[in-house]
Amino acid sequence: MAKFVGVAVALLMLLWIVWNLFNKKDDLERLKKDYTIHIEDTASITRIIISDKTPQSVTLVRDGNVWRTGSGELTRKDAIETLLETLYRVRLKNFVPESARDNVLKRMASAGKEVKVYAGNKLIRHFYVGTETMDEMGTYMMLKNGKNPYAMFIPGFNGFLSTRFFANEALWIKKIIWGFDNLEISKVKYVNYDQPQESFELVVKEDGFLLTDRTGKTAVADTIKSAVYLGGFRVVEYEGVILPQDPIYNRQDSLKASVPAFEITVWKSNGYWRKLTTYHIKASEESEEFYTNLGKYDPDRLHAYITDQTGKERFVLVQYYGLAPVLRTFNDLKKS
To answer: What global pTM score does this model have?
Structure first.
């Protein structure tokens, strides 16, 4: 009898140990699910929505091999690749101490960003991105309906991740000004307000190019130079978009009331057009350019608007260097 009781007790103890092991395993699995933000198969992602508290929101949509914003604009390749890499590599760094939990949640509620990730129509991740950790080596994140926030990081990367999740659509858009294929272009009009004699209009004909100066005088354009010139409208980019926090943003009325530096309008054969209108930036009085540059202007940069026939307008900063492929004069393109 005693032997039977001993066996029964041993069996019960074994069952209790096994039960505890399974419970601990279940607890660990549940805990792991609470901080699993990374996505193994980023190729399955078709849509990402990022919102902040300003409030701003951007929708990023996979379109075949490229990504576009919700308004149809191509996105910056570097930005989308960084975001997808973050979704793939982000891992748990530390648990948040109970004493800090409420403070982390408050900051997340006031300055956090909401991220929704879809594969087709299925929402596969819904989480919040908060502020950086005290050592700035991690970022607080929390799953929607999660129990706790966690300090997350990317192994091998020293820094925080919140800046990779920005909700301003303008910052996601590819910096191409025109992006037109040279074979699609039907006409280019260049108006130089500083030196009007350099202005021209270049029309694509079946048998070549027709060049017209500002007075209406026509000339035969150099075929090779004109073809190379049109090719530039595929690649030229602006330096960056001008945001509401930039001082010039609130002075746009006076900027538009001033005389532009130059305008370049490009038409496609289907009638669609896009125009770049540039304005000089005054050089600071401390700079050498203030005394040496004609008109006392910044020799490198200009403020500009990119507009098209749909009424879209983008306020940007451009560089002469970046525009070099499409800055030509009547004499540059005229056949010798």
So the answer is: 0.80
